[in-house]
């Protein structure tokens, strides 16, 4: 099959191409997830719109309250950048658990998010991340909305805006069968805010990650037993089976990790 590669330098041009060639088209950043999909024969699109030349999608800035990361920032850049290290150490750690070093030098944070299944999404959900998405104009929306909505079919993720979690305790745990080159059994993330509010989220390679709202509600109740929170997690974790792991195994593994992180805080 002949693939036609386009390399627009502006967002409006990229968006017009995505609209013009739909549905036989897709955007490409580092193309590492696309490569996996091509290998499996999943994505034979004729038009590929490379976003790599779009300047607005590059660069990292920070102020007192937020960090803004261009969607084209590679995962290796995220890991090494001094602003991110200072303001979002949890993101540096999480990035190290994605793919393997060679892949991370091409893979972008925007591609991880835009795929709606990337391993970084649970962490970004608990951090209350927002996205700047281009769809005829720039719109700012919560990451959770991007994940669950079909309202942005050709939307281009241009930046991710992350509030600095100063003083909050944040955890991110990816459980896999091997250290690298492995799909996650489960990815969990949590954030215990200074005012004792909480965020929890989970996912794995084949599903859209989500916030665990019921479990968060259980944690916020004035009195609860550890087994009640555990059962709420098991009920709410959105996991499915694949050829290697049952849904029940994934749920147990993830619930155990979350409970161990929360009980460090002396809950229950
Ligand atoms: C060997 C291997 C192991 C991997 N392991 C992991 C892993 O452990 N965890 C994990 O999460 N991922 C893994 N991946 C997938 C991938 O490397 C990451 O998810 C990566 O961050 C995707 O970024 P990318 O720039 O390569 O995205 P691309 O492949 O370019 O794009 C991914 C998807 O997002 C769309 N897209 C890309 N950028 C944008 C944008 N800015 N706006 C809108 N749509 C966009 C594309 O159309 C495509 O559907 C692995 C890949 C390989 C090859």
Q: In words, what does this structure look like?
A:
- The chain is α+β, with helices and mostly antiparallel strands and 268 residues long.
- The protein folds into 3 domains: 4-50, Uridine Diphospho-n-acetylenolpyruvylglucosamine Reductase, domain 2 (2-Layer Sandwich); 56-163, Uridine Diphospho-n-acetylenolpyruvylglucosamine Reductase, domain 3; 169-263, Enolase-like, domain 1.
- 36% of the residues lie in helices and 24% in strands.
- It is built from 12 helices and 12 strands.
- It has helices at residues 11-21, 32-39, 75-80, 82-87, 89-95, 101-104, 109-114, 121-126, 143-148, 213-220, 226-236, 247-263; strands spanning 4-6, 25-28, 47-50, 60-62, 66-70, 130-135, 137-142, 156-163, 169-176, 184-192, 198-203, 210-211.
- The chain has a 5-stranded antiparallel sheet. It has a 4-stranded antiparallel sheet with strand order 9-10-11-12, with helices on both faces. Strands 1-3-2 form a 3-stranded parallel sheet, with helices on one face.
- Helix 10 runs antiparallel to helix 11 (226-236).
- The longest helix is centred in the C-terminal third of the chain and has 17 residues, at 247-263.
- The chain is globular, with a radius of gyration of 19 Å.
- The mean pLDDT is 93.
- The structure holds flavin-adenine dinucleotide (FAD).
- Flavin-adenine dinucleotide (FAD) binds at residues 26-36, 51, 71, 75, 98-99, 103, 106-108, 110-112, 114-115, 118-119, 156-157, 181.
């Amino acid at each position: 099959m002949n693939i036609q590669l386009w390399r627009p330098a502006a967002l409006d041009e990229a968006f017009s191409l995505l609209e013009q060639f739909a549905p036989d088209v897709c955007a490409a950043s580092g193309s590492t997830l696309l490569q996996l999909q091509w290998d499996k024969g999943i994505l034979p699109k004729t038009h590929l719109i490379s976003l790599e030349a779009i300047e607005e999608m590059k660069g990292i800035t920070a102020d007192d309250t937020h960090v803004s990361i261009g969607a084209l920032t590679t995962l290796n850049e995220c890991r090494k950048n001094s602003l991110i290290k200072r303001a979002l150490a949890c993101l540096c750690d999480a990035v190290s658990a994605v793919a393997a070093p060679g892949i991370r030098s091409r893979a972008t944070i925007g591609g991880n998010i835009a795929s709606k299944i990337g391993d970084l999404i649970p962490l970004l959900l608990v951090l209350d991340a927002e996205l700047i998405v281009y769809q005829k104009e720039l719109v700012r929306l919560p990451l959770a909305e991007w994940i669950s909505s079909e309202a942005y079919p050709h939307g281009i993720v241009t930046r991710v805006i992350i509030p600095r979690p100063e003083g909050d305790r944040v955890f991110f745990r990816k459980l896999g069968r091997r250290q690298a080159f492995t799909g996650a059994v489960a990815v969990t993330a949590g954030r215990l805010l200074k005012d004792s509010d909480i965020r929890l989220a989970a996912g794995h390679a084949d599903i859209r990650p989500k916030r665990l709202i019921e479990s968060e509600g259980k944690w916020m109740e004035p009195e609860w037993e550890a087994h009640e929170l555990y059962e709420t997690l098991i009920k709410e974790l959105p996991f499915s089976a694949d050829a290697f792991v049952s849904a029940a195994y994934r749920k147990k593994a993830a619930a155990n990790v979350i409970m161990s992180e929360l009980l460090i805080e002396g809950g229950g």
